[in-house]
Amino acid sequence: MTRFRRAFRSLGKLACSRMPGALVLTAISTGVLANTTNDTAPPTKMRGSFTVSSVGDLINADPLDVEHNADARRLAQILRSSDVAIGNQESTVFDIATFAGPGPGSPYILLGRPTLAKGLNALGIDMVSTASNHSNDWGIEGLIAMTRLLDAAGVVHAGDGMTLAEARAPRFLRGSKGRVALIAAASTYKQGAKAQDAIDGVPARPGISGLRVRPIEIVSASTMRHLRAAWGQKQGQGDLIVSVDTPFAQPIEKRYRVGPRPRVIYDMNVVDHDAIIDAIRAGKRDADVAVFTIHAHENDDNMDDLASGPPADFLVRLFHDAVNAGADVVMGGGPHSMRGIEIYRGKPIFYGLGVFLFGGNVVLTQEQKTERYEDGPQRDNRNPKDRAFKEPESWSEGFIATTQFEDGKLREVRLQPLDRKAGNGTHLATPVRAREILARLQDLSRPFGTVIAIDGATGVIRP
């Protein structure tokens, strides 16, 4: 395949508003969000053969040594043989020796070496999302420092901006075959990470493109009666809404609803949803291929990223809307575990690609380093044994998905399993492990009606 030429113009200070097709925000909408948009899924405009390689979360502290490491070289060969390769850059990357911003304040801070940006280029990754729950680990200064390194390395990034409009806007990569648009967002993010536009005299705030979601716990009728009684509310119909006080923080609103089985469902903020969909339309209008990705830890069992359950209900609605608006490939990241694959209107939706690169440098704050008390078991976060975390089994599995379009139509999706269980670092799974991983992916994809054929150590989906 002809490799995309890295000819992306530097964004400077994240100023994507200068690019063609920058997002113009629509008026605030009201009412209930429709299940799907009324769009008709515009066709892929790229002629001839075109391939998109999708990978999951990038949480590594050091770049892979493509030149000397055989496993890394095999991964690079797959990614560089595609026309464009896209991943989810979760850890913050910059040179801490020259960092001018303040130190971190929130727990579990990630930091990657500044050489990681060029390492992505060497590995063959062309475009990344920078919207995640670790985007503001080092404040907006850390996010900007990372985007400057990505610009210098020729890696296109989306999901960040000096304003919310900039963060939501599509970013573009032009190559010899045409133009690719990437639109990125996060529904799981830390407080203060979401960018803001200037409004009513309040200045804009840099950050990421965030999608606000509101969880609703589904409970049995019996449980609802007990909850209403405990909160001193009259028995009746509709949601139970309670405000739970938290020390030195704003109260948390919790919602409960009666349903057939215990689970968690989510309401999407209609303003965020509509703006993201508009950005996808704008990206597809000004590009030949559009890709949408979101960092979302939410599951229907509310277990965050410690379980590999079905994707949250709002992701299915959002991803369908994204395809209807023009997304040719939809990528889900965040849970570090595989989720199913759906072919919707001839476009692949990867609900969870799993971890691609893992081994981030976890930085401890002063609060964490001094978390020792006179009473009870002694815990010293400075000791690796005291802060050891056992990864779920599901975090050891992932895959590279290479989607091939032929004259704008989906021809096939090839799935190459990744394994972190048998050794250090990510590598292509052995044939035996590959079949195990693909069998699990078959089970996860079956509810979406997707048939995955296993050809040796590779999974194949054909429309």
Structural class comes to alpha/beta
Q: Name the helicity range.
A: 10-25%
Beta-strand segment tally = 24
Major sheet: size, sense and barrel closure? 10 strands, mixed
CATH topology of the largest domain: Purple Acid Phosphatase, chain A, domain 2
The helix count comes to: 9
Give the low-confidence spans. 1-35
Counting structural domains, the number is 2
CATH class of the largest domain: Alpha Beta
Oligomeric assembly = single chain
CATH architecture annotation name of the largest domain: 4-Layer Sandwich
Strand content: 25-35%
- Fourth-tier CATH superfamily name of the largest domain: Metallo-dependent phosphatases
Sum up the overall morphology in one term: globular
How many whole angstroms does the radius of gyration measure?
A: 22 Å
Task: State mean pLDDT (0 to 100 scale).
Answer: 86
The N- to C-terminal Cα distance equals: 22 Å
